[in-house]
Amino acid sequence: MKFSRRHALLAGAALPFAAPVLIRARPAFAQDDHGAASGTPPFPLHQVFNLGDMQAITLLAGAGQQENPHEIFGLNVDDATFQQVSEENFIPADRTVGFMQPTFLTAGDARLIFDTGMMAGGTLAAMQDAGLAPEDVTHVVLTHMHPDHIGGLTDDTGAPTFPNAAYVAGRVEFDAWAAMNDEMFEAKVRPFEDKMTFVAEGDEVVPGITAMETFGHTPGHMSFRVESGDRRMLIAGDLVNHYVWSMQHPDWEVLYDNDKAMAAATRSRVLGMLAEERMAMQGYHMPAPGVGFVEARDAGFRWVPATYQFM
Predict the structure, then answer these.
(1) CATH class name, domain 5-304
(2) Are 172 and 222 in contact (CB under 8 A)?
(3) What does DSSP say about strands 166-170 and 139-141: parallel, antiparallel, or unpaired?
(4) Domain boundaries in the chain?
């Protein structure tokens, strides 16, 4: 099944550089036609984070370079402002690198994976690197239904990537995509409808993991709060898509946010909560390995990458 650039734009693919099969991007570490890693990735394919009695493993399913990021981020600011903010943060204004990072979480007898990558091969390669098998997964949890989060639900033949899993998603998100008559949703998500549990704000996925409504990026985007002992982490999905252009400036508009005003308000609200509670965050598109902390600064926030806090 092939999807055009137009389909990717209409479907609102979260970041173009996260979808090298859908648009032209210079891959730093990409996937071949079957989703397997091509080339030597410059980052570890997995990293382990201990969360009390739970364990989170971030999986680097893919990454790629994209030019002209101001066409995606900061749509409501001028070129000079975008250039200045980029220079202040020691990053180029004319290119960026994005990451796709599902999270595998062990919680008691449950083995959950949050999002699935653009294609199954990239996610499975990272799982294999971590000593995990697709049969291990008991729950597939979707933050939202953009292509780079649902593409790995099935392989090239349409067979389920995770044959023993139950499926969890937000009710609002599912219904919104079901009403779009979207080709990729119908191919990748609809076949699992009968196996799907739908969650809303405060619902428990398994003990210690609760759903949080973080609408805006998509109509029913969900994040998931993980708590074990004194350890806490928010699996944030695409709440924030760049550690500078979306986090330091949460009011900057992002091309692929469905409701830009709501997405900005949600970013400010949730990032404020994370900063106040000093809770860790896993961001699907944050710099690998995607885990860090949020510090309030001026009118925005600063990303503090995790180091040895989880050892």
Answers:
(1) alpha beta
(2) no
(3) parallel
(4) 5-304
